[in-house]
């Protein structure tokens, strides 16, 4: 098992390229199930969750190959006429996004067997909305032996209307993928507006789907009988970009994050500015300059275009050394403050009460061994290590590797004293 060791206290300077979005690549790969033939998804980051999705598709009978050299971010998928329409527990338990195959499977083959994901470190994360919406499209759903068994009784789903009770990203994506091959029109209300949902809609349109309204709360889909294989380039990763921007904003940094899209990150950018960072949009991306001690800022997480829950832990690190107190409210997941206990070990002064955390800025953090609990929490601990005086060891780096393509290789050229070692 690897650990990341950081000697902190060095402001970061230079340029870094953002990778493709994990959370756009995963649904695009799942969408390939919707058509027989040879597909290609470009700008796919090389990270553990993408490999898990590749294993899942291979388990079903697809061929999944990542390119080499200049093509290392292109994943080619060959989808056969028939597959084993099943997502086994062994894979779903390592990655909840495996549930994204449910919609495509039942849409194309009229049946699917997908393990229920179970609990998660950041919250309960049920998939009731996915299932209710699929029922509205005529799927019969049964829960047996820990698996969701979904069936389209006539072999094909029927268009229908559904309004989501909660804003769900993968729920919206799953049902969009189900509806594109359904018979007739589907209207989905209270949809997630995240850029990754809109990117999937574009990918589906490239396959021949008739879909409109993505990026708004109402998505309308006219089902078609057949789709063609996908060639799609996924959007830049706004969460990796945000993590790098926070890294640049720490203690006097000056970093250009190449390739990121400001319009995907307004919620974060507004709070970074309020904290005193200077942000400059340039044609290549976004430049951040961290000048002096951050100012305290209150923020609450919310669905897009609000402040992304996936950036909450990283932003908290910046506020941990602010000149005053900030209140952070997590509204999306019920248990997403696991990083707080670890930040306390580095000398932060944070108290939590339910959904809120009171972050009293301290003048400096001091390095210590810390334990990663989930993906974004581990990114936050790396940021804290960059800031802390002395040496910080981040253990359980496999959490980080699920969603970042070797974060240390992006930070080291910026001057960070960071290396990966065997724990
Ligand atoms: C997606 O998860 C992302 N994952 C998450 O990224 C992200 O944190 C989350 O959206 C919120 O932005 C992928 O895109 C693969 P939700 P998802 O369904 O779709 C409740 C990361 O670090 N809910 O939008 O699983 C749920 O419990 C990850 O990259 C229901 O109640 O999240 C939560 O409170 C972690 N019933 C809220 O909705 C449902 O059927 C939002 O969850 C579905 C969700």
Structural commentary:
The protein has 423 residues and is an alpha/beta fold. It has two domains: 2-19 and 236-422, UDP-n-acetylglucosamine1-carboxyvinyl-transferase, Chain; 22-233, UDP-n-acetylglucosamine1-carboxyvinyl-transferase, Chain (Alpha-beta prism), CATH 3.65.10.10. The protein contains 14 helices and 24 strands. The strands form six sheets. It has a four-stranded mixed sheet with strand order 22-23-1-24. A four-stranded mixed sheet has the order 2-15-17-16, with helices on one face. Strand 16 (278-282) and strand 17 form a beta hairpin. Bound molecules: ligand EPZ. Ligand EPZ binds at residues 23, 26, 96-97, 123-130, 166, 168-171, 192, 196, 309-310, 332-333, 375-376, 403.
SSE blueprint:
Elements: E1 2-7, E2 13-17, H1 22-31, E3 37-42, H2 48-60, E4 63-66, E5 75-79, E6 86-87, H3 89-92, H4 102-109, E7 111-115, H5 128-136, E8 140-144, E9 147-151, E10 161-163, H6 169-179, E11 185-189, H7 195-206, E12 210-212, E13 219-222, E14 231-233, H8 238-249, E15 254-258, H9 266-274, E16 278-282, E17 285-289, E18 299-300, H10 312-320, E19 325-329, H11 338-345, E20 349-353, E21 356-360, E22 369-371, H12 375-387, E23 391-395, H13 398-403, H14 407-411, E24 417-422
Parallel strand pairs: 2-15, 3-14, 6-7, 10-11, 18-19, 22-23
Antiparallel strand pairs: 1-23, 1-24, 3-5, 4-5, 7-9, 8-9, 11-13, 12-13, 15-17, 16-17, 19-21, 20-21
Helix pairs in contact: 1-2, 1-7, 4-6, 5-6, 6-7, 10-12, 11-12
This protein binds ligand EPZ.
């Amino acid at each position: 098992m690897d650990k990341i060791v950081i000697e902190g206290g060095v402001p970061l300077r230079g340029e870094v390229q953002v990778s493709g979005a994990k959370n756009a690549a995963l649904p695009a790969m799942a969408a390939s199930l919707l058509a027989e033939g040879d597909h290609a998804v470009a700008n796919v980051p090389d990270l553990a969750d993408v490999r898990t999705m590749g294993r899942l598709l291979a388990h079903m009978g697809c061929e999944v190959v990542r390119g080499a050299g200049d093509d290392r971010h292109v994943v080619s998928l060959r989808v056969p006429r028939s597959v084993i329409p099943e997502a086994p527990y062994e894979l779903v338990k390592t990655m909840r996004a495996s549930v994204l195959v449910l919609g495509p499977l039942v849409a194309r083959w009229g049946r699917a067997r997908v393990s229920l994901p179970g609990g998660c470190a950041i919250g309960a994360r049920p998939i009731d909305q996915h299932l209710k919406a699929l029922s509205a499209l005529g799927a019969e759903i049964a829960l047996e032996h820990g698996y969701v068994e979904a069936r389209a009784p006539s072999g094909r789903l029927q268009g229908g209307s559904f309004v989501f009770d909660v804003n769900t990203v993968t729920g919206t994506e799953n049902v969009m993928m189900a509806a594109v091959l359904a018979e007739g029109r589907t209207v989905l209300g209270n949809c997630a507006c995240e850029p990754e949902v809109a990117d999937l809609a574009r990918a589906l349109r490239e396959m021949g789907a008739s879909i409109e309204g993505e990026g708004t709360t109402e998505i309308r889909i006219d089902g078609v009988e057949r789709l063609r294989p996908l060639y799609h380039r996924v959007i830049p990763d706004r969460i990796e970009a945000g993590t790098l921007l926070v890294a640049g904003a720490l203690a006097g940094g000056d970093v250009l994050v190449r390739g990121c899209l400001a319009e995907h990150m307004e919620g974060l950018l507004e709070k970074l500015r309020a904290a005193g960072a200077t942000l400059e949009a340039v044609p290549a991306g976004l430049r951040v300059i961290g000048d002096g001690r951050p100012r305290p800022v209150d923020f609450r997480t919310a669905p897009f275009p609000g402040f992304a829950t996936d950036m909450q832990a990283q932003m908290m690190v910046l506020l941990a050394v602010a000149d005053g107190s900030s209140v952070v409210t997590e509204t999306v997941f019920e248990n997403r403050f696991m990083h707080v206990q670890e930040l306390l070990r580095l000398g932060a002064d944070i108290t939590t009460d339910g959904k809120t955390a009171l972050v009293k800025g301290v003048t400096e953090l001091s390095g210590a061994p810390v334990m990663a609990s989930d993906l974004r929490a581990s990114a936050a601990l790396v940021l804290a290590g960059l800031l802390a005086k002395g040496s910080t060891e981040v253990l359980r780096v496999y959490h980080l590797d699920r969603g970042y393509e070797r974060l240390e290789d992006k930070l080291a050229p910026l001057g960070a004293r960071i290396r990966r070692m065997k724990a």
